[in-house]
Design goal:
It contains no helices and ten strands. By secondary structure, the chain is mainly β.
């Protein structure tokens, strides 16, 4: 049953910031783009690079290992429609950043 889990605080995710969080064996990457917080699968589908460690430009993050880019709000990539990362619903309650985990 999906549930919301606290993964960060707003203070830990300033505008332009990113954070990697592991929860129950899955890695999540959280991003703050102009005050909008997003959560995606934290592992690049190419060769497992840590997406939260990649440079964020606008709403696009590039994997630090090989440069594959993903939109942190949609999970899509310019590489084609068959390649994407999972996106997770986020809600902010007070200072807490909650992510809906499967």
């Amino acid at each position: 049953m999906p549930k919301f889990v606290k993964m960060a605080t707003r203070e830990e995710l300033p505008v332009g910031g990113a954070k990697e969080v592991e929860f129950e064996g899955r890695v999540y990457a959280l991003f703050n783009v102009d005050g909008q917080i997003s959560a995606i699968d934290g592992i690049c589908p190419h060769q497992g690079g840590p997406l939260a460690d990649g440079p964020l430009e606008g709403c696009m993050v590039a994997c630090p290992w090989h440069g594959w880019e993903f939109n942190v709000q949609t999970g899509q990539t310019p590489l084609g429609p068959k390649i994407k990362v999972d996106v997770f619903e986020v809600k902010v309650e007070g200072d807490d950043v909650l992510v809906l985990v499967p």
